[in-house]
Specification:
Largest sheet: 3 strands, antiparallel
Helix content: 10-25%
Radius of gyration: 33 Å
CATH topology of the largest domain: Immunoglobulin-like
Structural class: alpha+beta
Number of domains: 2
Number of strands: 6
Shape: elongated
Strand order of the largest sheet: 1-2-5
């Protein structure tokens, strides 16, 4: 039987890599797989750790209750219920200048605490915000 015109060598597929001993390089597969496994594990850990922070504060509302006072309703959520939290609360005037500031201390007890606090101001306040909350 004579070889066909398409494959002059015969029934076997002719490959120059086999003829000259060249093997395909796949050395990158193992390091890439290890890197992917470590990367996915780290991403999962980071997502779960940062989805529940040590301390979270939420401003619900505020209302001007006097010529020089504003009342703020806010909540904090802490991972450790016994931690003492200090929140710095600000009142702002029409030009967004700070006209009042207090530090509100929240003692340990529950993990989620809602507070209503009156903040005095030296000028007429129009808004309020939580500057920062920290565990002391």
């Amino acid at each position: 039987m004579s070889p066909s015109k398409e494959n002059p060598v015969g029934d076997e597929t002719f490959d120059y890599n086999d003829r000259y001993g060249i093997t395909p390089k796949r050395a990158w597969v193992l390091p890439a797989a290890i890197f992917a496994i470590i990367g996915l594990a780290w991403t999962l850990w980071a997502a779960l750790d940062h989805s529940r922070p040590e301390l979270r504060s939420t401003l619900y509302s505020f209302s001007v209750t006097g010529e020089r006072e504003i009342t703020m309703r806010y909540a904090i959520e802490r991972r450790d219920p016994q931690a003492v939290v200090i929140c710095t609360l600000l009142t702002l005037d029409i030009d967004k200048n700070v006209v009042g500031q207090i530090d509100d201390q929240i003692d340990g007890g529950e993990s989620k605490v809602e507070r209503i606090v009156a903040i005095p101001a030296r000028l007429t306040p129009v808004s309020a915000r939580i500057a920062a909350c920290r565990i002391s």
